[in-house]
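Researcher: Next sequence.
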Amino acid sequence: MIVTHALAKRYGQLHAVDGIDLDVREGDIYGFLGANGSGKTTTVRMLLGLVHATSGEIELLGQPMPSSARTVLPQVGALIEGPAAYGHLSGRANLLLFDAAGRGGSRRTRRTRVGDALEQVGLAGVGRRPVRNYSLGMRQRLGLAGALLRAPRLLILDEPTNGLDPQGIHEIRELLQSLHAQGTTVFLSSHLLAEIEQLCTRVGVLDRGRLVLQEQLADLQKPTGRTVVHTPDAEAARVLIGEGLIEVLDDGALVIASGDAPAVNRALVEAGIRVQELAPQRRSLEQVVLEAAGSSGDRSVR
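Model: Next structure:
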């Protein structure tokens, strides 16, 4: 769905994007992550033909870009760097104009498609209100509605939950999962690691213009071969297991150098040590991203 080969963008001596090879497959929900200034937005703009690459190749839906933009882009929905709209017009009127200015949508079905898109993003009841009276979250929903007008095969979204409250974030997540279940491939740029972790099947991480990680999320979060134990009897557990095989986490949990969680549980219980919680250790997405980018814990991930 999205393939790049040695894609690069330079601004003078600055290498904003430095020879990346993206591989977004049909059926992915792909999370695109990186620190501020890593080249993430520049990459997205190159994919859509909004910025010309200095070198390298881009394919969207199996077609070269930007030379095939006229045939490819009608099949792609996009929300990049926040939605644009005419404030004095209603959300519905903005979508009608947006659809009329594009390609690939039938004029006869325009009003129906606009109504359906507003319904999908939860704006059906306010579609006739002037956009200048919309909150940031409502504007974001309107931008997403514009991306959904033509039932795209591929959705490219930049911070789609920006400005939304927790309920709105949950609703958008459910919408994206529903679209994915219907066959839409989603390319999602977000700084919300928890959202990426809940939603995405595959992730790519940019660091200073270079793609330093690209993998299935499930593979990145496989058990580490150690077991995490929460117990009020931490000292007794250390004595039983041995100091050299135990690490104490910040929350007081113990990490035991054994991936056989049932055996660890059995040994602790037989020794009379109370076990509140026990599970194989898995790395969080935050740990994976920071490790891949070689970042310190205080570096902002975007």
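Model: Confidence is low (pLDDT under 50) at residues 296-302. The chain is about 35% helix and 25% strand.
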